[in-house]
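Quick one: structure tokens for this chain, please?
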Amino acid sequence: MTNKQSTTNSNPFNPGFGNVPSLFLERQAEVDKVSAGISTLSAGPYQTTLVYGVRGSGKTAFLNDVCKSFADNKRWIVVYLTSTGNLIEELTSSLINKTESFIGKRLKNLSLNASAYGVSVSAEKGRSSSVTSPKVILEEILQKIAKKNMSLLVAIDEVDSSDAVREYTSIYNALKNQELPIATIMTGLPKSINTLQNDRVLTFLLRSAKIDMTPIDLMTVKFYYKKTFADASRTIDDNTLIKMTRMTKGYPYAFQLLGYLIWETNDKEISDKTISKIIDEYKYMLYKNVYTKIYSDLTNMEKTLVDIIAGSDDDNVSTAELIEKSGKEKGYISTYRKKLIDEQILTSPERGTVSFTLPYFKDYVIENALIEGIEL
């Protein structure tokens, strides 16, 4: 990536994953709505909130913004869990640490022991005693939290349908059904969220609040680009501004990446010449950091359809063309077409057609096919 640094202002754009950029395309109304809904607990669907979108769509930033709204509220305890760990053990340990001032000596002295069969909780450290289930311990802690007129928000980023996530979700539902003061917000890829909520023992997730991280409105992208550069006494002519906006397709990661690269040129007057300096790097970073993983995660049939769309002369490809070039029946194609739309790889700009949602994804598929020797 370009090494040249701004001499006057630090770069406000941050294309790094997992970080909340200093310049974030705010979904503040949605954040406020979710935060208010969570705070009422059982009064609405937001007690369990699922945030989903493709990589780079701003899920983590959204989750962090919601959790931050509870940070200064002394009536809420917020616990972040890593989806790759033992969620129940992490939650129990974290809660014991965060509530040790009022949960009592017995609970403070609990010892957690992970095993191949889950987590066992010994009644006291260093003593021989019966083993208590984590669910029972969590019930007891939450009852004490409730007596303090407090509540718990559990945040889990990038969930999948692993045993650990399924175990947590099942125990969480049992605690919620006892009207204990607990809420959960989880983020994940559309495919992961869909698999999780359709698990036969987790169908309660179908009734949860769903936040779809769809592309940002292009007028918002245009406004933020213009304002951010103008605030640093850097100008963009209108044609270049419109081109930059279209180059992102409203994809939050692309917005951050393009803004970052253009900022780093230090050009005071940003023009088409500025874009030409960074376009190759812009596409390379999209390919390397996002698109390679997205494409590799597709099923073989999904890849077939994506390849057909990329190889078409038109950006908007008809269902009829997909049927003809794949040699598959209409119902079969419709199923995979819908999957790709649900996974936010494709959009349907008009009835009977599809196109790519992400900027330069068509270019990526074409270049990847050339490298792999695949005929589109």
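Residues 272-296 form the longest helix (25 residues).
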